[in-house]
Amino acid sequence: MITNLLNYLNDTIKRVPNKVAVIDGDSTISFNDLAEKAKKLSTVIDTKISGIIRKPIAVFLDKHIESIISDIGIIYSGNAYMNLDTKTPIRRICNILELIQPELIITNDKYIGKLTEIWPEKKIVNIDLIDLSTVNYSQSKIDIKLNKIIDTDPLCIINTSGSTGVPKGVVLNHRSFMDFTEWAISTAEISQNEIIGSLSPLVFDIYSFELCMMMRLGNTIVIVPEELSAFPVRILQLLQKENVSYIFWVPTIMVNIANMDLLSKVSLPCLKSVWFAGEVFPTMQFNYWRKALVNAQFINLYGPIEITLDCTYYIADRTLSDNEPIPIGIACNNTDVFILNAEDKLCGTNEEGELCVRGTSLAMGYYNNPEKTALAFVQNPLNKSYPEIIYRTGDIALINEKDEIIFKGRKDSLIKHSGYRIELTEIEHVIINTLKLVKNGCAVYDYNEKRIKFYYESEVAISASSMRKVIGEVLPKYMIPNIFIQLKELPRNTNGKIDRFSLKELVNEY
């Protein structure tokens, strides 16, 4: 019986122990060696935390073989991994750690100095100081511990933007990842021979899914170095060199590749599955990819982090005009998606409303944050007979005449930008309350240009470069506004509050 993801990995090791599991530049590791090192690391973890299970353990490493060993080692220890972005300002990392209170942080020589300034040294493990070849482990002890882990126990925590400046830690379990993985395999007929071009950062749920595919099928993960992001042609050359057959990317880089016409310069004959999610893929650039890779299957997926990976999908099997939005399709297996109007009634065809989700794909809530959990995960208003939790996404959508779900936008200040989910109010909170750069301001997202614009009240203009420099000490790069716009007075509604909707109408003027 499959009760956790390591059941997948154990079966794969028996079947293909010497197959390459991960390619990281010139370095590779087999499935057997990956598991051996992860089990040894789990023993080190166990020694440090005295057998504690079902608790978060943080990983503060760049994306390499060592970070994958760390994540799997944490799972072997019976705990949940929480990958942290090494590029995130240390103040934000500190906020995350204070909220989540991980039992340990796994890092290396490169980052140990940064962490010891903000976290107790006894709760930090420097893997560069551990010689795993000298560590012994007991398989029976590992088995005893894993027998206590069931499918609804936490697998990982993924941090997402929070309106108060403190990210929320979304708790995702083994069952929801296994459900999605099995659905993916059957829907797209993914084989045991896939080679995955892994571009997503460790903090993305897509990376965790790639980990699942590796463990479940014995697929090989090819790590795309982060430094190649500025050189899309080199990314394609790497895919070509390693015969990558499957990618699951945020569209941003795919749009750049289309705009630069790079698929005419680098052929990808092995690429058969192209999945994308995280933000809207402009149809014109999507059509470029589809024409260039005529033998590939393209799937558009949708879902906030509170739903494990994604909850809807659209297999692009019909022609779409350049000005026609790509549908987000239909619900994935074992998931129900429905659209509610302002009266919490089901919307009719072409009627816009809020997209809601129910099913085992739902996250378990926000770690150490019952108030935020209660606000987002609520009783299904369509069901008065028994407890049934749904997640209200805050996204506006409709169902068209073809029974396809069409994404229309956000109902509040939550956006998707460069694949990251961002609370615009968090940007405002940091600029106004934390840094006190201005007294009043409002962040607005320009969906056409995919840029964050910050409007602020001031008699004197403030240098955009100086604003970015100061904000960059607190917020990650992807949350720093692209444009700063000074207004003598921000528009207000009848209640005296900043009129965000009026600013949205101005967004194309700047």
UniProtKB/TrEMBL annotation:
Q: Does the keyword Amino-acid biosynthesis apply?
A: no
Keyword Isomerase on entry: no
| Cross-referenced Gene3D superfamilies | 3.30.300.30, N-terminal domain of ligase-like (3.40.50.12780)
Q: Which domain of life is it from?
A: Bacteria
Family matches, as InterPro entries? AMP-bd_C_sf (IPR045851), AMP-binding_CS (IPR020845), AMP-dep_synth/lig_dom (IPR000873), ANL_N_sf (IPR042099)
- In what residue span(s) does the AMP-dependent synthetase/ligase domain sit? 12-367
Keywords from UniProt, A to Z, are:
Phosphopantetheine, Phosphoprotein
Q: What's a Pfam family this protein contains?
A: AMP-binding
What is this protein's record name? AMP-binding protein
